[in-house]
Amino acid sequence: MKTDSINKNNDKYDVRENQSIDLLKELHILTRDGKMNQDSRRKLKQVFHLVQFIEPIIGDLSQQQQAFNLVDFGAGKSYLGFLLYDLIAKHLQHPFQIIGIDLREDLVQYSQELAQRVQFKHMLFYQLNTQEALVSTDLPQQIDIVTALHACNTATDDAINFALHRNVPHIVLVPCCQAEVAGLLKEKKSKVLKNNYFSALWKFPIHTREFGSHLTNVMRCLYLESCGYEVTVTELVGWEHSMKNELIIAKKLQSSSKSQNASAQLKHLLLEFNLEALAPRFKLNL
Ligand SMILES: C[S@@+](CC[C@H](N)C(=O)[O-])C[C@H]1O[C@@H](n2cnc3c(N)ncnc32)[C@H](O)[C@@H]1O
Known about the structure:
This protein is α/β, with parallel strands linked by helices. Helix content is 45%, strand content 15%.
């Protein structure tokens, strides 16, 4: 089936001219008869937007070097990896690998089988937990991009640590909901509310959740800056499409100048909000 006929049937379908309809069906984004439900449309929109942000990074890498390797952390069904392959990577002249990592064996197996069916030869999938990923010899020595799209809870932190450990120059993150910091804020609430002028920021449960999530991403950005990355934060798609919408793009600075200021700010936040328990994650001594 051609893209045109899909667009004719429903002009809101956001399928691109040059993409494989068979792949979209295999990914269950399109049904067998070429229809798309609301959830799939939302997912596709998010993935398209992310592809648009990653495309120029791949473009730059292709100018600078002969090959590139991308690792998608918490890949799930690997919508992102498959669409990156289909829309961009398969048109490149030089070698590349798109690698999905996930904790779940069933998803890894599903993705491996799908890659075989659609003959995407340069896709690899591994079932690895965080510690295994850090030391895995299956993964290539050089990794150029780490992505994590809605990797649950602290899996985004695992993706960051993996990227830092492997000295990866480009990191593209869309964090999922994050409950850990909200939990810590809640735990210390009665103690902190008395002494902290800012405590109104997280007094009510919904504010605890939202503020905890916001603080989490702020600390992630400071951590990346403190490790020598230039960080950009923006929204991925309109809020009507997803609540988990923050896009963090980090690029390793050539000068490898680490921001002392970011490190000091991060320390200050941990102390101010009684989050000392998180100091080891950010390799900080308080
Ligand atoms: C919400 S799903 C998102 C999947 C996919 N990135 C997407 O956007 O469709 C999160 C995935 O992260 C995986 N995951 C969670 N923690 C992980 C970890 N520490 N390491 C690797 N994968 C993890 C889960 O198994 C799950 O498949």
